[in-house]
Amino acid sequence: MATEQPPSGNGDDGIEVESGGVLATLSAAEIDVQIKTAKAYPRSIKEFRRQAMELATLDEETARSMFYVIPRDGRKIEGPSIRMAEVAASAWKNLRIGGRIIDIGAEFVTAQGMAFDLESNLASTIETRRRILDKYGRRYSTDMIGTTANAAMAIAVRNAIFKVIPFALLKGVFEEAKKVSTGKNLTMEQKRTKAIEAFTRDIKAAPADVFRVVKRKGIEDVSLDDLITLNGIYTAIKDGEPTWAAILDELPKSDAQVLRDLETPIDATATHIPEGRAAQAAAAKDRLLNDEEIQHLDDQRVTLGISARQLKLLLQEHAGVTTLDELPLSKAAGFAALVAKQAA
């Protein structure tokens, strides 16, 4: 696993810019007073490490929030999280931080984060971009844009903080937080159960998908390293970096075939589902459709002229449910074929 030093390297963040734009909001007199105060009460690196360790490993929930893991291209990228940056800033002292949204465009939202070490007179300003279009090229809703903007701003502030505070000073804290995150005084069985419950409860992930992400057949095969990976993925999702659907998309093609098949436009002239696709759906581990899959099927029924009332009747006929969010993945491909047949 590659340990990543901020900026996070997600491809659209970590752009360092001139600090003047943010720092201009501070008056020269105000800065002078803060710098003099910082010089009068200098930090202790020993005390910084002690306090950071104490805060980061306060309990397993806090420890879990200290690091992220993002599966990508067959490898795992890990690094210190937004929460660890906050812990570091608090323990470092004599540090001023801030963030703001500087642009919401047609495709991206851009945020700026700033960290200013008053004691060393070192400042860093980082810009972060986040896409606000879904995989179909549709712009996010207003609420989703706001959520994405907040995540972008938090990530920008994190990256700015770690441009000022040397991450090397936190390596020991980082590694200890990973160990504590799995739970103290718990049996391995309890640790595994707790991790899976967190994913099913908070992320609405099917246990079978969680096992596939760590390449295990079942809960008994999950190792301690797997638990640390899952904790990091959990934090990354909560911090607004990847989505669970995006992580599932990183799985090998054969594992994610059903999900990708649902993205294929429905042929209005089709009268049956292709045999191979039906077999994949039948063999898939069952779960309910996620938001993107529901939206895709709903868009397709609108395109094909199927009314909401017809949709409900077709759902009852095919799966014994009344809404798309109750439809299991294993029945989705067959339902798509039924909708296409009805429209033909």
Give the topology:
Elements: E1 2-3, E2 15-17, H1 20-23, H2 28-40, H3 45-56, H4 60-64, E3 67-72, E4 75-80, H5 82-92, E5 95-104, E6 108-117, E7 122-131, H6 142-164, H7 171-180, H8 188-203, H9 207-213, H10 224-238, H11 244-249, H12 257-262, H13 275-283, H14 291-303, H15 308-319, H16 329-343
Parallel strand pairs: 1-4
Antiparallel strand pairs: 2-7, 3-4, 5-6, 6-7
Helix pairs in contact: 3-5, 3-7, 5-6, 8-10, 13-16, 15-16
What's the quick description here?
This protein has 344 residues and is of the alpha+beta class.
Could you give the order of strands across the largest sheet? 2-7-6-5
**% residues in beta strands:** 5-15%
Task: Sum up the overall morphology in one term.
Answer: flat
Instruction: Output the radius of gyration.
Output: 24 Å
Head-to-tail CA distance between termini? 51 Å
> Largest sheet at a glance?
4 strands, antiparallel
Verbal overview:
This protein is an alpha+beta fold and 344 residues long. The chain has two domains: 2-179, no CATH class; 257-343, no CATH class. Helix content is 51%, strand content 14%. The protein has helices at residues 20-23, 28-40, 45-56, 60-64, 82-92, 142-164, 171-180, 188-203, 207-213, 224-238, 244-249, 257-262, 275-283, 291-303, 308-319, 329-343; strands at 2-3, 15-17, 67-72, 75-80, 95-104, 108-117, 122-131. A four-stranded antiparallel β-sheet has the order 2-7-6-5. Mean pLDDT is 81; it is low at 7-13, 253-260 and 262-285.
List keywords for this structure.
single chain, 344 residues, alpha+beta, 2 domains, four-stranded antiparallel sheet, three-stranded mixed sheet, 16 helices
